[in-house]
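Note to self: the last two entries modelled the partners one at a time, which told us nothing about the interface. This time every component goes in together.
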Amino acid sequence: MAIRIEEAFNDCFERLSFGESLDSCLRSYPEHAMELDLMLRMAFDVKRRAHPIQPRPEFKYWSRVRLQGVQDYMSKQTTEEKAGPFNFRRNLAISVAGLLVFIIASSGTVAASNDALPDQPLYGVKTAVEQAQLAMAVSDVDKAVAYANLAGKRALEIETMARQGKTEYLITTSTRMDYQLEQAEIYISKYQAATSAGSPAMTTALPTDTSSTEGYDQTVQPAPAATTEIKPPYASPDNKTGAGQTTVKRPVLTAPAAANVNKAKTALSSSSARSLATLQDALDKAPESAKPAIIKAIERMKKANEWSQQNLNQGQQQDNKPGDFIPKPENFPVKPLPDVQKPKRDGNDNFVTPDKPRYIPPLDQDLTRPVPDTVKPPVTLPDVQLQVPANTVIPGTSDSGPTQTQVITNTTGTVNSDSSITNKTQVITNTINTVTSPTTRQDSGDATTTK
Amino acid sequence: MLTEEQLVQRAVNRDRAAFTQIYDLHFDKIYRYIYVRVHSQAEAEDLTQDVFIKAYEGIRNYKWRDLPFTSWLFRIAHNRVIDHVRKASREKKASLEEAGAISSGDPVYITEQNFEIHQLKDALQHLPDAQREVATMRFISELSIAEVALSLGKSEGTVKALQFNAIASLRKLLYGKINGY
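The predicted structure of the combined assembly is written out below.
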């Protein structure tokens, strides 16, 4: 294939720049030699003409001095910014972000995006606004409340998508909801840990396994000075802790801190209770394929609700205040979950249909063995044609061979058999073994065999 | 001996000595690139200085994986020249064609050099924008094909075609048609 002249020109220009001669390069491209010669001379003429263009040394020197002045100025500014009591740029950025959120939130696009679903173009706007709202939540309590509200929004989206039969984003939305619930719980735990005054030994185990509420139990520590003993739910009926059971010590929170914790827990509890009702509706309307995802979301939401209820009640006991209205699942018309048959998996994590178990023979099984009747596939194979050249001597065809090999009767080696599938397989196997085995060929005393 | 990438990484971290080394490495190339694109030596000097100040201001946000440093620097120079040319055309400044060669040595030789540079600048002004950009970066600032391609946001194949066409056009403009080329 002929090389384009642009490529040849570039190649020669590079080679000449590295010291190769013009003639040597032109010999590489005899078809373009004449034109390349002119163009390369021109290119180096341009280089030659431009070579004297150099900055004046004094300009170069003063330019560097000026640049160093700029560097000094900028480093001084940076130092002042870091040393100052208030970071002006940071404050400015926060103010601008707040203003931006306000402007965005008041615009029509955002209003329109409020009901957007994950498969719609405005969903990006919706999530961006949510992120801005999260960024504006400064304290742990505010963040917990924000995350709880967002989880509620995800539940609404799941319900809408299930109603509209859009199943492709259900799992994604459910996962997102799961994450937001987890974040709400983490921030509440974090706030509790941070505000437990005077109890340095107290730590809160942040959940690592989101599938279980057990991970949220506070760790057992040496009893701090001011703690309230709380009986674990598995204590014996006589209110004594059973043998081997540990007692959970929970630190006393200050009154404002307890109020804040209650605020966050109430938000989580309301959001999860409302969402449970919503998801229950979604389950009724959803197609079968979407139900496992919704059931998973309901289970997760139940756990979050139980967790928030449990801690909320503890918080109320602690500060001895009459609690606000705490929504519970029973306040909403939540129906019991139907008994949906979940797909089962075998030991290899493959889906197994209970009615029709698959028969998968092991790899080392002898395929010539009769297949068990229970799973034998009702397949009839066509007659097999084996191409065997003429003059091929198959041992056993004339004297003491097995009955199956005697069906090879002519020079083309056609096998005709009405026998069962097992017999056919044996015919083929025996024939192949006979034809390809060198020992058998030697025994037959005939060198004219096939490959 | 530091590689260019290591040097740039130090400069990104506000190492002043590293940035000074970068300055020395690229100053002449940038100056030549700007000089053939503007009318006067003074303009070229001002713009060259501006390019390095802008580079220093912006280097904190520079990432090597996005663009090689030379291409990034020439992109700044390219934008600065475009802004300047646009502004100069509005103001309609009188051209003060002056020589850019080092003004020491044989006066006759210097005059010849200046005349050739003037011819070259004049011929470059007659090229289409894309050809002029490629020819300036490739043959005057001596950038590689890849660097030119990344600076201008074009493919290497396109740059090769543009450089060949630019040389063909320059040949016609400087020497007229010879043997049909």
